[in-house]
Design goal:
By secondary structure, the protein is of the alpha+beta class. The protein is built from 25 helices and 26 strands. An 8-stranded mixed barrel has the order 1-2-4-5-6-7-8-9, surrounded by 4 helices. α8 links the parallel β6 and β7. The chain is elongated and about 145 Å long.
Length: 677
């Protein structure tokens, strides 16, 4: 036995071979999916020996199976892996794959620890398939029978053959790190990676990229449709004692951003194989309400949907393979400049053109066009994607709205009042021209907060507060303020408005109108003066007086004499129903019913009541005799608007008559003693 063979055997006996674990993550979620198990040799004298050095030696001396058993036994026994759902991937050399009893040895190793082989992925390099594909197929089927998954490693770096993918039951396809390292910088690498990933997707294989070291690489792989990634970006290989910490930690890698390079490529990826993707896109294509097509570099129609064929008035089959100029020669001069600009890489949107009326008759149509350059994985322009929308009806609607708006503005200017519109900041955005006639301020100066210059300084604070309150609560505005006329006179104006709410329930503006109320204000002040004089006259009367309003049947006036006679039970604001609960009886002692009260008879039927004697029981228990008289109150047009009652305290009147009589008797007696008689 040679020294090297002896040293290798010693290394196994002394536990110098051990596993390390490199994280494998799902690119879409950055969630840990498993680990690739890698072998390491820590020589007691030489230190770390690279796998590229010791693997060929182990294969040469027939120790490679012992290495696999050592590595798998250690990995399967780890509780953090055995008790999880994480997958383990391990490399098998070509010698092992083509040797005897590979599946049996792996099954025995897993059985000792109870590790489920459904979570084990066997990675096979393509070179292992070259010498004996038939034996490799038998071994692969034996491994699949155990439940193991198979991954084809380093695809594209050696003698790649589609026959291998077709023949062996692979589950995963791994992209070699040599392509991943340059996927961002080199278009050729992007094309190769895109081709490998597309092939894997079309065959229903899970795709994994090795050697991911930067965010840009990971983002690009995610955009190209790669499922999983491993590399230093997600974590370096760790020993078993650090594995639990890796499983527990948050990887904290955010791949949601759009790849930095190539920025001009549209980031579209579907989780479907190409055939299904084509069917889905075709369904979307044909179902779109706008015209869609793709033009190649020679401006030929390569694909289009039914809506575009309808807009062009040409069957679909008469488009394909023909140029735009051949299909729609009468429109081509209008659109050619935009197509050529898009072919140079310039996205163009929102182009309006007038489509000429057909020769057979009909109206001109308005079309809205957009042109988007289409690029391959390397960023090279393949052609132009075109979207066309018929906006003729929309333009008609816009014209009708403009006409309606013109009518609205015309009505605003003709209105005798001043219509206005406030925005959500409380600024005037529109106002009727009557404002200028009333105040002399031009409308342009009144917009925003300019109109406040014409408002009396004392009225500005409460006016602004009313606007703020309406914007905050959604309640209507109803305020009065003074504005200055061109002559310098201050006149009263009344402003009323209501908020308008948008679909979200928020206020979008306030509509309102201002009207002059100066004359009404003066009339109201005069009326208040008249009421004050009336109240003074009523309060000077010695008899009690009660006035009631016919509209709401409430007591509006109770003079001091009535308050003294009836007490606090009667007051302004009480209802007629409350009034009928007063403790009044007829002269014969019968309780007075509500319908028998003189005020009720007058207010309900307009009947006057003449000098009716009643007995009233005061709050202190004393009973007094009252004489009630009522009269209806009519407006100038004969409408009953109220009633009033005159209340006289008969007991008090008798006392007054007695005092007057006594005074008269004393006066006569003094006269008889006069010396002049």
């Amino acid at each position: 036995m040679s020294f090297i063979e002896t040293d290798l055997a010693r290394a196994f006996d002394e536990g110098e071979f051990y596993p390390v674990f490199q994280p494998v993550v799902e690119l879409r979620t950055c969630q840990l999916a498993g680990f690739e198990v890698l072998a390491r040799w820590n020589h007691k004298q030489l230190g770390q020996v690279a796998p590229d050095e010791f693997i060929p030696l182990l294969e040469k001396f027939g120790l490679i199976d012992r290495l696999s058993r050592t590595i798998l036994t250690s990995a399967f026994a780890l509780p953090v892996l055995a008790e999880s759902t994480l997958k383990l991937a391990v490399n098998i050399s070509p010698i092992q794959l083509l040797g005897d009893r590979l599946a049996e040895r792996i099954a025995d190793t897993a059985r000792q620890s109870g590790f489920p082989l459904e979570r084990l992925v066997i990675e096979i390099t393509e070179s292992a398939l070259l010498s004996d594909l038939e034996r490799a197929l038998d071994a692969a089927q034996e491994l699949k029978a155990l439940g193991c998954k198979l991954a084809l490693d380093d695809f594209g770096t050696g003698y790649s053959s589609l026959k291998h993918l077709h023949t062996l039951p692979f589950d995963e396809l791994k992209v070699d790190r040599s392509f991943v390292n340059s996927v961002v910088e080199k278009r050729e690498s992007r094309k190769i990676v895109a081709a490998v990933l597309g092939l894997g997707q079309s065959l229903g294989l899970t795709t994994i990229a090795e050697g991911v070291e930067t965010h840009e690489q990971a983002q690009m792989l995610l955009w190209l449709g790669c499922d999983f990634g491993q590399g230093w970006l997600f974590g370096r290989p760790v020993t078993a004692d650090r594995l639990e910490a890796v499983v527990a930690q948050d990887l904290r890698v955010d791949l949601t951003a759009t790849p930095v390079l190539p920025s001009e490529i549209s980031p579209i990826h579907l989780d479907t194989i190409p055939a299904e993707r084509l069917a889905l896109l075709q369904a979307i294509y044909d179902g779109a309400p706008v015209g869609l097509c793709f033009l190649d570099r020679k401006m030929r129609y390569m694909s289009l949907n039914r809506r575009l064929a309808e807009l062009n008035g040409v069957p679909i089959e008469n488009h394909l393979g023909k140029t735009v100029e051949e299909v729609i020669p009468h429109i081509f001069p209008l659109v050619e400049p935009y197509i050529r600009r898009a072919m140079q890489g310039e996205p163009i949107t929102g182009v309006e053109i007038q489509k000429p009326a057909p020769a057979s008759g009909g109206e001109r149509r308005t079309l809205l066009l957009s042109y988007q350059p289409a690029r391959d994985e390397a960023g090279e322009i393949l052609g132009v994607s075109v979207a066309i929308m018929d906006i003729t009806e929309t333009k008609r609607t816009e014209a009708a709205l403009r006409e309606s708006e013109d009518h609205y503005r015309h009505m605003m200017h003709l209105s005798p009042h001043v219509p206005w519109v406030l925005d959500t900041r409380g600024h005037v955005t529109e106002a009727g021209s009557s404002w200028e006639r009333l105040t002399g301020q031009p409308i342009t100066d009144a917009l925003g907060n300019g109109w406040l210059e014409m408002v009396h300084p004392e009225d500005v604070p409460h006016t602004l507060e009313a606007i703020r309150h309406s914007l905050n609560t959604g309640q209507p505005i109803d305020i009065e303020y003074r504005v200055r006329r061109p002559s310098g006179e201050w006149i009263w104006m009344r402003s009323r408005g209501s908020p308008r709410f948008g679909p979200s329930g928020r206020i979008v503006c306030i509509y309102g109108v201002v009207e002059e109320v100066h004359g009404q204000k003066q009339t109201s002040e005069e009326l208040q003066d008249s009421k004050a004089a009336l109240y003074a006259a009523i309060n000077a009367v010695h008899d009690g007086m009660v006035l009631i309003d016919a509209q709401d049947c409430t007591v509006s006036i109770v003079n001091p004499a009535a308050q003294q006679i009836l007490g606090d039970a009667v007051h302004a604001g009480m209802t007629l129903a409350d009034y009928t609960r007063l403790p009044m009886t007829h002269a014969d002692g019968r309780r007075m019913q509500p319908s028998e009260f003189p005020l009720v008879r007058t207010i309900l039927r307009g009947e006057p009541v003449e000098a009716k004697q009643v007995i009233y029981k005061r709050a202190d228990g004393a009973q007094v005799w009252l004489l009630l008289s009522t009269r209806p109150i009519y407006s100038e047009d004969g409408q009953l608007i109220g009633a009033f009652s005159i209340i006289r305290d008969l007991d008090h009147a008798v006392d007054i008559r007695r005092e007057i009589s006594a005074l008269q008797d004393e006066s006569e007696e003094d006269s008889s003693k006069s010396p002049l008689r």
